[in-house]
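Tokens as discussed.
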């Protein structure tokens, strides 16, 4: 399994508060969903290798046995439409070119062809995986929807983690979206968690393959993006914040949270890469 997918899985588990210990010492098992597992894992990170639905109970029984009591299971998946669009851009289909919508979609897809892409999973498959995991006391956990995509705040979706995961995967055209599961005993109500944004300050950040600068009126976050745009290497978010404050000559008690929220949204868009372990 690609290292970047593993790092995305770890980051998501920490951000949602389902894995709270030192990730530098985490015992991670990474591979295909149906791959054999060693016991006593902190995090099982997987991509779907399409075991039949009837095989999923056996798969999740093995995952349940392998995880430590405070461990997490993370499945990394792509939205089918987003994955198809990237493939279509690579194919350079001439018949669809020329419209404003096509040109906008092609521009998006071209910028993301270098991104890490997990196997695309349709809604029916994800619902089947969530149901099988629940039979083995593993619950899908999602952040509050306004955190993932502020534009979706008024969209009517089910008050459960599965519905919100499906909506945000589609709306944000996810190419490597971690779906985080934790044991039912420690899961938040309805599987909806308040993100632990303060943990982002300990992360490393670098420009991603779809790098772009979001418009922001906040002086510190705007300065942070300027610093990141010219940074020759990965930076600790703490270091980035320190340089941004010095450059903008501004500071606020809410700087960490605002910058963290912006970086996570940029990471979901492929614009930056976030990791909780040094990439060097």
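Sequence:
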């Amino acid at each position: 399994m690609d290292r970047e997918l593993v790092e995305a899985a770890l980051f998501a588990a920490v951000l949602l508060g389902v894995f709270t210990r030192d990730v530098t010492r985490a015992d991670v098992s990474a591979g295909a969903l149906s791959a054999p597992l060693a016991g006593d894992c902190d995090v099982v990170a997987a991509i779907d290798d399409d075991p039949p639905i009837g095989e999923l109970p056996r798969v999740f029984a093995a995952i349940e046995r392998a995880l430590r009591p405070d461990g997490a299971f993370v499945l990394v998946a792509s939205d089918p439409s987003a994955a198809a669009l990237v493939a279509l851009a690579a194919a350079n289909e001439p018949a669809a070119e020329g419209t404003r919508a096509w040109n906008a979609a092609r521009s998006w897809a071209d910028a993301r062809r270098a991104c890490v892409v997990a196997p695309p999973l349709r809604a029916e498959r994800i619902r089947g995986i969530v149901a099988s995991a629940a039979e083995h006391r593993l619950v899908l956990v999602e952040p509050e929807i306004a955190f993932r995509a502020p534009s979706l705040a008024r969209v009517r979706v089910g008050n459960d983690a599965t519905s919100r995961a499906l909506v945000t995967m589609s709306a944000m055209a996810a190419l490597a979206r971690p779906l985080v599961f934790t044991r039912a005993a420690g899961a938040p109500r309805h599987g909806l968690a308040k993100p632990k944004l303060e943990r982002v300050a300990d992360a490393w950040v670098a420009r991603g393959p779809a790098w772009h600068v979001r418009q922001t009126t906040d002086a510190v976050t705007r300065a942070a993006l300027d610093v990141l745009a010219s940074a020759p290497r990965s930076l600790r978010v703490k270091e980035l914040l320190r340089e941004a404050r010095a450059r903008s000559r501004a500071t606020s008690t809410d700087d960490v949270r605002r910058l963290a929220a912006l970086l996570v949204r940029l990471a979901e868009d492929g614009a930056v890469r976030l990791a909780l372990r040094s990439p060097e």
